[in-house]
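Data deposition worksheet. Section B asks for the primary sequence of the deposited chain exactly as it was used as input, without tags or linkers unless they were present during the calculation. Section C holds the resulting structure in token form. Section D is free text for depositor observations; keep each observation to a single sentence. Incomplete worksheets are returned to the depositor.
Section A, Depositor: J.P.
Section B:
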Amino acid sequence: MNWLNHRVRGFRLVDLVAVSVLTLLILGVYLAKTVAGGERAKIATVERQIAGEKARIRLLQAEVTHLEQPARIERLSETYLGLQPLSEKRVANLADLPQVAQKPVTGPIKVVEVTPDPLTSAPAQAASPLPVPTQVATAGTRQ
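Section C:
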């Protein structure tokens, strides 16, 4: 008797092997599809993050463009630093530079106060914890 024709409980052995291989293939395809769906979800999440970052980059570029406008910088320099455009009589030629270098600076010099760096001037001891509030106010209640 041939092993292909061998019967187990009324079924040929070849039929049983074929059904088990088919079942394994179905499970393998199902698992591969499930894993691929998870990967697609991760890819979609990363693509959404990329789109958000690109929008943020465009927003930051627009902000930089606004902050670098020459008229705005000129207005800020006049307002906060007291700077003004140079007059024509203050322009020197290349031949006049040695004479200009020997001239003393005229006018009062403004002293700029330096704001101390909070990281370098921080106390060495740790700060005490904030006091615990004794009464909690609830929003929308009147007394």
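Section D:
Residues 52 and 69 are 26 Å apart (CA to CA).
Helices lie at 13-67, 70-81, 97-102.
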